[in-house]
């Protein structure tokens, strides 16, 4: 189990980072889950196509054979199927409404493929392989996804669409091919070049992320002056809806004097006019306020400056990480569902031993098979139940309700070291904050 968690850990971190970068108008979870699962299942056509391509390997020798393996069997086939799955699922989706979404979608599919590939490598070659792939292969798949998603997002909203769609395949294919060729060649200088190329890919990925971030759509601003029309002149506010169009001064009396305003000198401009008509004439007689005398500029700061006609302020909700934690709980629940398949191995073993014992008349084998079968089914049910509860926790965090349920499941999650421990601790710390409790209604 520790190998599976080691294989999954970098995938979870990368997905969380990409989701965090998508700050505005985030994608629906069901679509991201579908993309991730499709990326996992893309391994099947990749293996099938790779099996067919094996017939052509013997046509090449030496570095040509390595190049064929790297650029065709690995890079071309994998990137083709990942792009095809991504395109078919999201191209016509309504939620695909900004360029950065292309990166989110492509990386999610790439991470679905990478998690299956990484589990196979780590369980087959051990802990050290998992540590090495944590900083090489898995981030590389994410970078290929970033380059694919960058051009896919440009193809969705920019022209020429055909060119950008071609680049969405060609660029990650070439990057993937060079990456594999340098590591497969077995030449010393190529190994050194591989690490240099890896660093360049990291830099390239951050540049692409930053490039598309400027196109992100921010939420609509909420006007707070819909029913009040107010004109602001320096420190003085004129409410044009008021019956007398009187001045509202925010300054101290020392600042209420003007010099050379329209060729005249005024004292105490906040004096109440006699009637509405006089008020209108009085306001119109002040054509210029730019020469107002202010003797206490450094000592005075207005408290109520009023609102201009077009003034609006963005709604700022309480800052929290509930959505990010919810996604991580969704991912954790999905991983538990996936790990339940491994528990079924004990069920199959127990059923086989039980059947064999009955057939051969071996009582001890029957008992052992029954034990395997019983505990295998029990473990399967428990893992599935915890997976469902993790998914429910993610849903409740998004909806900001049932805080106590989230607290209990997060506490139980702490026993699932190491990823569950980190997720449980961070969730407990977050939902125990006073301002977060208010969001839950506690």
What does this structure look like?
There is one protein chain. With 442 residues, the chain is mainly alpha-helical. The chain folds into three domains: 2-213, no CATH class; 220-314, no CATH class; 322-439. It is 67% helix and 5% strand. The chain contains 15 helices and five strands. The protein has helices at residues 2-21, 29-41, 43-53, 62-90, 100-125, 127-135, 137-157, 161-184, 188-213, 276-284, 322-360, 363-399, 403-413, 419-431, 434-439, and strands spanning 230-233, 236-239, 247-249, 257-261, 264-267. A three-stranded antiparallel beta sheet has the order 1-2-3, with no helix packed on it. Strands 4-5 form a two-stranded antiparallel sheet. The two termini are 37 Å apart.
Give a topology summary.
Layout: H1 2-21, H2 29-41, H3 43-53, H4 62-90, H5 100-125, H6 127-135, H7 137-157, H8 161-184, H9 188-213, E1 230-233, E2 236-239, E3 247-249, E4 257-261, E5 264-267, H10 276-284, H11 322-360, H12 363-399, H13 403-413, H14 419-431, H15 434-439
Antiparallel strand pairs: 1-2, 2-3, 4-5
Helix pairs in contact: 1-5, 1-6, 1-11, 2-4, 2-5, 3-4, 4-5, 4-8, 5-6, 5-7, 6-7, 7-8, 7-9, 8-9, 11-12, 11-14, 12-13, 13-14
Individual helix count: 15
Number of strands: 5
Q: Which strand order do you get reading across the main beta sheet?
A: 1-2-3
Question: What is the distance, rounded to the nearest whole angstrom, between the alpha carbons of the first and last residues?
Answer: 37 Å
Order of SSEs: HHHHHHHHHEEEEEHHHHHH
Main sheet makeup = 3 strands, antiparallel
- Find the structural class using helix and strand composition: mainly alpha
Outline the low-pLDDT stretches.
219-315
Count of spatially separate domains: 3
Radius of gyration from the alpha-carbon trace, in angstroms:
32 Å
Shape: globular
Name the average pLDDT: 76
Helical coverage, percent range: 55-70%
Percent of residues in beta strands:
under 5%
């Amino acid at each position: 189990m520790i190998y599976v968690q080691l294989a999954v850990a970098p995938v979870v971190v990368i997905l969380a980072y990409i989701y965090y970068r998508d700050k505005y108008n985030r994608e629906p979870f069901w679509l991201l889950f579908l993309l991730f699962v499709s990326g996992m299942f893309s391994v099947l056509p990749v293996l099938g196509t790779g099996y067919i391509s094996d017939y052509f390997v013997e046509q090449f020798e030496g570095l040509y054979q390595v190049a064929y393996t790297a650029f065709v069997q690995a890079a071309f086939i994998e990137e083709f199927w990942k792009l095809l799955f991504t395109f078919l699922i999201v191209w016509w989706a309504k939620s695909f409404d900004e360029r950065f979404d292309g990166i989110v979608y492509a990386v999610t599919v790439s991470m679905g493929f990478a998690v299956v590939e990484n589990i196979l490598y780590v369980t087959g070659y051990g802990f050290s392989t998992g540590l090495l792939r944590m900083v090489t292969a898995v981030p590389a798949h994410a970078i290929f996804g970033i380059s694919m998603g960058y051009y896919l997002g440009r193809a969705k909203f920019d022209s020429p669409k055909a060119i950008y769609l071609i680049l969405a395949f060609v660029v990650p294919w070439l990057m993937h091919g060079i990456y594999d060729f340098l590591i497969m060649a077995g030449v010393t200088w190529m190994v050194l070049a591989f690490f240099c190329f890896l660093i360049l890919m990291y830099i390239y990925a951050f540049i692409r992320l930053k490039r598309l971030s400027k196109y992100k759509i921010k939420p609509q601003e909420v006007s707070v002056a819909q029913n009040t029309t107010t004109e602001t002149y320096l420190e003085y506010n004129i409410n044009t809806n008021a019956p007398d169009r009187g001045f509202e001064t925010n300054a101290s009396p020392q600042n209420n004097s003007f010099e050379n305003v329209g060729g005249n000198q005024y004292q105490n401009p906040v004096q109440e006019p006699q009637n509405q008509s006089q008020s209108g004439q009085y306001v119109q007689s002040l054509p210029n306020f730019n020469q107002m005398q202010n003797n206490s500029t450094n000592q005075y700061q207005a408290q109520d400056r009023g609102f201009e006609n077009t003034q609006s302020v963005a709604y700022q909700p309480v800052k929290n990480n509930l959505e990010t934690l919810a996604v991580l709980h969704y991912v954790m629940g999905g991983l538990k569902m996936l790990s339940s398949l491994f528990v079924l191995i004990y069920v199959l073993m127990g059923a086989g031993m039980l059947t064999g014992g009955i057939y051969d008349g071996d009582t001890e084998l029957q008992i052992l098979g029954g034990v395997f079968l019983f505990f295998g089914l029990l473990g399967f049910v428990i893992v599935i139940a915890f997976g469902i509860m993790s998914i429910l926790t993610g849903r409740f965090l998004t909806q900001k309700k049932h805080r106590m349920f989230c607290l209990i499941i997060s506490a139980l999650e702490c026993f699932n070291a190491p990823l569950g421990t980190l997720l449980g601790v961070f969730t407990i710390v977050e939902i125990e904050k006073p301002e977060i409790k208010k969001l839950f209604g506690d």
